[in-house]
Specification:
The complex is a heterodimer of chains A (305) and B (226). Chain A is an alpha+beta fold. Chain A is 76% helix and 7% strand. With 226 residues, chain B is an alpha/beta fold. Classes of the chains: A alpha+beta (305), B alpha/beta (226).
């Protein structure tokens, strides 16, 4: 009996959708725009994460030590650095390791190699390389490192470039998120209004049936349910459409992102595939919830028992 | 069966559609409620089907106090009271069969029962040969018969006919009244709300006359006195 009622409710919902096809189409289109903007927010979030990761890999806060620094002084400094909040690892790079790394990085630069040979000895100093837990921690770590003046073994430190880069990255990421959130909220608000209007029109189109249903004793649930089902139908079609549109979009975006971030680890399609159920499932549930609220308001206002 | 006890229905700003209205209707009765327009007849109908609530007083249907019926109880009330209106309220895009079947579908009946009951009630009202016609393909009288069939599918104890002959010529009107009498003979209480003098006088049944929201006359075998 319940299944039969559900089947009839779905039938009436589909009738509503069909009878007001153009209104339904506009409603689904607006919903698709909203979902597209939400997905774009997910992309922005993913890109920021990847960019941050890529920067984190490249940033190393180095403290250059005196060439004749005693081992116990270096160890004491290393221990102190490790105790700074936000620091995950402090590694010691000896003079020889620094030279090896420098030579390998500048293998193709003949003039530098020539200069090194002319100097005749290793001109590089040993250093301590500090890695912070997260990008946000670097600021705190840099501030803490700036206060390490009592250690005479430190010859130099320069974090200004990192500080600027980190600040601008954080600013851009936060600003982009804010803009996309605002855009998403605008679209969601528009969606609520459009769904409300679509259901209102569906109620108007169905007013005779509703009148007869009330007259012959259809339950309130049965009268109202098709409009709620229609709201869920809008969400379902909206999510299907956004999947169909969004995948080609991220396929197109993918190669540009890889070269823009200068890293091969960006796999936007893989990310969406890996989180398919969560991303689109949550979007379907969220859209259904919003549409059901809009639909309920319209039904409550226009379908009097 | 139905009791109105000192019922008042007030509409702002200053209209008492029913004013201390009292009426008792016994099971199986055929009752005509007459009165001029705006005297409270339709308000009485609306109160009976839960479309409006009384401002004061008490309304009983059987043992059920429907004075302050809750919204979720209204559908069950309406399944016990079949209602017929002057403007038919048939769905134009559905055949007569589908119109009657619709009343059962929306109340959750299974298809096999619908396929059994709908032809029976359509036969009862004399439409067995026109069940697949659309409302605009049959006469006004036949449309009203289909509406009566629709009202009967739930086997209501009460049939409430609000001006059922208002849009019909005298021959079709007489047919509808005959049909209502036939239904009444099966034990259904029939309340005929009308201001058709000829019909009321020809019925020779109980007549309640309303004026200004009050019962001014209640005759066992009555006549149209206005």
């Amino acid at each position: 009996m319940i299944l039969l009622s559900i089947a009839r409710v779905l039938k009436f919902a589909l009738q509503d959708f069909g009878r007001n096809f153009w209104v339904s189409l506009v409603t689904v289109t607006i919903l698709v725009l909203s979902l597209f903007s939400v997905n774009f927010l997910v992309v922005v979030d993913y890109i920021s994460q990847q960019a941050i990761k890529s920067v984190e890999e490249k940033i190393d806060l180095s403290l250059y030590l005196n060439a004749d620094a005693a081992e116990e002084d270096i160890s004491a400094l290393k221990r102190e650095l490790e105790s700074v909040a936000g620091v995950v690892e402090v590694s010691y790079v000896s003079k020889a390791q620094a030279l090896e790394s420098f030579q390998s990085k500048n293998r193709d630069n003949q003039s530098l190699q020539e200069a090194l040979r002319e100097v005749g000895k290793n001109p590089l100093n040993p250093s301590l390389v500090v890695q912070a837990k997260e990008l946000a921690d670097y600021e705190t770590v840099i501030n803490s490192l700036d206060k390490l003046s009592k250690h005479t073994v430190i010859e130099s430190k320069n974090f200004d470039d990192h500080r600027n880069l980190l600040q601008s990255m954080n600013t851009i990421t936060a600003r982009t998120r804010q803009i996309m959130l605002l855009v998403s909220f605008i679209f969601i608000a528009v969606t609520v209004l459009v769904v409300f209007n679509a259901v209102r029109i569906a109620i108007y189109t169905h007013r005779k049936e509703i009148g007869v249903m009330k007259l012959v004793g259809a339950s309130n649930w049965f009268i109202r349910a098709p409009f709620l089902a229609e709201a869920i139908l809008y969400s379902f079609l909206g999510v299907i459409a956004v999947i169909a549109i969004f995948y080609p979009f991220i396929h197109l975006l993918q190669p540009y992102l890889g070269s823009f971030l200068n890293t091969a680890s960006v796999d936007l399609v893989g990310y969406f595939n890996g989180h398919f159920i969560i991303i689109f499932g949550v979007e379907f549930l969220g859209a259904s919830l919003i549409n059901i609220i809009a639909s309920s308001i319209a039904v409550g206002k226009y379908v009097k028992v | 069966m139905i009791t109105f006890e000192n019922v008042t229905k007030f509409y702002p700003p200053n209209t008492n559609a029913l004013d201390n209205f009292s009426l008792e209707i016994k099971p199986g009765e055929f009752l005509s409620v007459v009165g001029q327009s705006g005297t409270g007849k339709t308000t009485m109908v609306k109160l009976l089907i839960g479309e409006e609530k009384a401002t004061k007083g008490k309304i009983l249907v059987g043992d059920w106090d429907i004075t302050n019926v809750r919204p979720r109880e209204i559908p069950y009330l309406r399944r016990q009271i079949g209602v017929i209106f002057q403007d038919f309220k048939l769905l134009p895009a559905k055949t007569l069969f589908e119109n009657v079947a619709f009343a059962m579908q929306v109340c959750g009946h299974i298809p096999s029962k619908i396929n059994l009951v709908v032809p029976q009630v359509l036969k009862l009202v004399g439409l067995e040969k026109k069940i697949w016609r659309y409302p605009n393909e049959v006469s006004g009288g036949e449309q009203q018969r289909a509406v009566i069939a629709r009202a009967l599918v739930h086997h209501p104890k009460i049939l409430l006919a609000d001006e059922p002959t208002g849009n019909l010529d005298s021959i079709n009107a007489a047919d509808i009244i005959n049909l209502l009498e036939k239904i009444n003979k099966f034990g259904t209480t029939v309340i005929l709300v009308t201001h058709n003098k000829e019909i009321v006088n020809s019925l020779r049944r109980r007549v309640v006359t309303i004026d200004a929201g009050r019962v001014i006359s209640d005759q066992k075998i009555g006549k149209y006195i206005l």
